[in-house]
């Protein structure tokens, strides 16, 4: 793709329906050539923005699967409060304990293993798992329209990063395969490592149960991106109140910029939950915040001709959603 | 450059003298095609490995310059113990207080400013400053032979990162210009940010005086690279005991790998300090450690036909050392 494609009718967003949302995105792409190359930086939230996050996060499913296997060999594990709530699928018990504490307990299941072994487990899970209600492979939960946008940005020499409230290493293990984004451009919640020696006296990294710095939500998404990647975005995309500061950061850019909010309003093809309680943390639904602050709201139902990358590919017979280099 | 150049006589290291060191480096480059692309990762320490670190670190000079300007407007600053030692050039007083505490006090001079303003100050300093004894511009302290190696690795699709014991944001401000390395591939000591609002209610990042995690030396170089970049190196280059774990990490790779140690043994063209006390932290000079562990030692005096990039460029009339994309 080159810049002329953006302006010509052969535009890079075939899975987007015509309308003001697509016009806003295409307008930004057309303006991008006026942005200095070193400032062409875009960050995408992962869960609910680049792929499906319902009924639970894929990362949560991964840890749940690991927990079930561990409990098989060590039944006493099932008696720990966090794990009992998780195994019972008891959302209110999880809520009472706190999702963060539960997530940390689950992440602790991998204490002591090497980064390479963790990566192999994540990849194996992604390759073999199936979505619990949609019936599609976990590797097939990516939103095709967003992949088209990522690809278009890459064609304009953007540096594209992925941001997650979950663990960095989980997303990093599959970011190249899913999105063409290398591991060093993933910013999430960081688990600390210890440096030890293996049996041959060689350095060996081991995961700990400690979180480094802040859990990557809200303001921490901005401060963590700055410390780890070092550049502000001119485009940011998210879908929840935890992305508010990230989207406002992009909106503060002096030149062309775009803040995108994915509104999950499509119960037929995906899920509808934009107005649920979790979105009211700011005292209003996140879609209301978006309109008040001038972000571009993507209606999954109205703005996307197809939702999942594999569906778009099947419909068009083309290569939609294949991650680039 | 393509892979054939590595094997042909038109090799990519014109500033390296023939001999076993150059052979080891060229041998690694020739073997690199057997390394899976996602594992082609190389990290270079900055001070003393990619550019000159004597008589003091450039970053230290930058902070000293900032301190002098601040003291001009606020003479009471000069009475603080850390600053008194620095302004007097009193190395033993600095040593007694501890370089780390002194460095943090200096970094604290920039508390409250935005990342963008900090970057502009670093770039202005680099453009205008002169090395105190060599008389050359600060932008002209890069080692040409190392830039040739960085460029050769990039031609083989390596991901090249820069590692520093100093502040990440200082090196990151100039890494693209000096080495063609984007800001997100610089790993150093991280200063925390606070997210505030500016006068218009827009998000505004402000530097704090707090260090996030560990100062980036020794084992922390390895754990920080893992948490921030996520991939182990197959090539690592350093020059001091603080790089030991990093070089051992590269040496632990299963396929082709290279651990390079720059030996500063060239008092005529640069400095000679390999056997100084600071290198004895491991109970032996770092060059002894290197030979014991099988690293490749680069003698600046014997292995490099020219030291600084600009000198090589003047001699050859070519483009040696121009950072690539």
Protein architecture, described:
The structure is a homodimer of 325-residue chains. With 325 residues, chain A is of the alpha/beta class. Chain A has a domain at 3-54 and 142-316: Rossmann fold (3-Layer(aba) Sandwich). In chain A, 40% of the residues lie in helices and 15% in strands. Chain A has helices spanning 3-7, 20-31, 58-73, 81-87, 91-97, 99-107, 115-128, 144-155, 168-172, 175-179, 219-228, 244-251, 286-293, 300-303, 309-316; strands spanning 41-45, 159-167, 186-197, 203-212, 235-238, 258-263, 296-299. In chain A, helix 13 (286-293) links the parallel strand 6 and strand 7 (296-299). Chain A binds chain B through residues 38, 115-116, 159, 161, 168-169, 172, 176, 182-186, 190-195, 202-205, 212-213, 219, 222-223, 226-232, 245, 248-249, 251-252, and chain B through 38, 115-116, 159, 161, 168-169, 172, 176, 182-186, 190-195, 202-205, 212-213, 219, 222-223, 226-232, 245, 248-249, 251-252.
Which sheet architecture does the biggest sheet of chain A show? 7 strands, mixed
What is the fold-level CATH name, i.e. the topology of the domain at 3-54 and 142-316 in chain A?
Answer: Rossmann fold
The best one-word shape of chain A is globular
User: What is the residue-mean pLDDT of chain A, rounded to a whole number?
Assistant: 91
- Largest interface, by Cβ-Cβ below 8 angstroms: which chains and how many residues each? A-B, 41 and 41 residues
**Structural class category of chain A:** alpha/beta
